[in-house]
Amino acid sequence: AQSVTQPDIHITVSEGASLELRCNYSYGATPYLFWYVQSPGQGLQLLLKYFSGDTLVQGIKGFEAEFKRSQSSFNLRKPSVHWSDAAEYFCAVGAPGGYNKLIFGAGTRLAVHP
Amino acid sequence: EPEVTQTPSHQVTQMGQEVILRCVPISNHLYFYWYRQILGQKVEFLVSFYNNEISEKSEIFDDQFSVERPDGSNFTLKIRSTKLEDSAMYFCASSWGLAGSNGELFFGEGSRLTVL
């Protein structure tokens, strides 16, 4: 069965520092991979997605993620965090050509110190 | 920019009561979904809907739940007899293509359901 693990429940960084949020997935083949962000009181917004091709994908708000097949990982990165990036981040996996749903990780809550 | 809208934003109900959560998906989208997020837990898939029928549902989506697209614009989730454990944030989403494929999901802001 598909599953997604986000090992870090909470992360705190200083504004301007770099950020990496970890995501590992379990799936028999190469899945489709997504990162969503949820700001307080808001819905889920897609940051970026990986379907195939270049393993480094660029997203909105200066985020990027790298797919590493050998590590079954899809970590989210940002070189310099802004206070407005404080939110909850969800990694999700979809099954190509089959399931019409996404499986989400438990989320990582990001706090940003000024 | 087109968006998914949900009503109500918050509903409080008594255990055993029926609840209907409403969603207006993006107008040219073909696939519709409900997800839920119990406080402090992960977002969970409930059901997907395409071509006026359920295409997939999770084990959470039991006989107490139903979905409907009554008029070609609204997409509703009905909980027939609410239980305490139904308290959660319910997210509606829509996509033009398959969710796990090339269809990006657009989520609404959620409806918070509190069952007392």
Structural write-up:
The complex is a heterodimer of chains A (114) and B (116). Chain A is mostly beta strands. Helices cover 0% and strands 52% of the residues of chain A. In chain A, strands 2, 5, 6, 10, 11 and 12 form a six-stranded mixed β-sheet that branches. In chain A, strands 3-9-8-7 form a four-stranded antiparallel β-sheet, with no helix packed on it. Chain A is globular, with a radius of gyration of 14 Å. The relative contact order of chain A is 0.34. Helix content of chain B is 0%, strand content 49%. In chain B, strands 2, 4, 5, 6, 9, 10 and 11 form a seven-stranded mixed β-sheet that branches. In chain B, strand 5 and strand 6 form a beta hairpin. At the A-B interface, strand 6, strand 10 and strand 11 of A face strand 4, strand 5 and strand 10 of B.
> Structural class of the helices, strands and pairings of chain B?
mainly beta
Distance between the termini of chain B: 37 Å
Portion in helices of chain A: under 10%
Number of strands of chain B: 11
Helix content of chain B: under 10%
Overall structural class of chain A, as computed from helix and strand content, comes to mainly beta
The separation of the N and C termini of chain A measures 41 Å
Beta strand % of chain A:
over 45%
Order of secondary-structure elements of chain B: EEEEEEEEEEE
The largest β sheet of chain B comes out as: 7 strands, mixed
Counting copies of identical and different chains, the oligomeric state is heterodimer
The biggest beta sheet of chain A is recorded as: 6 strands, mixed
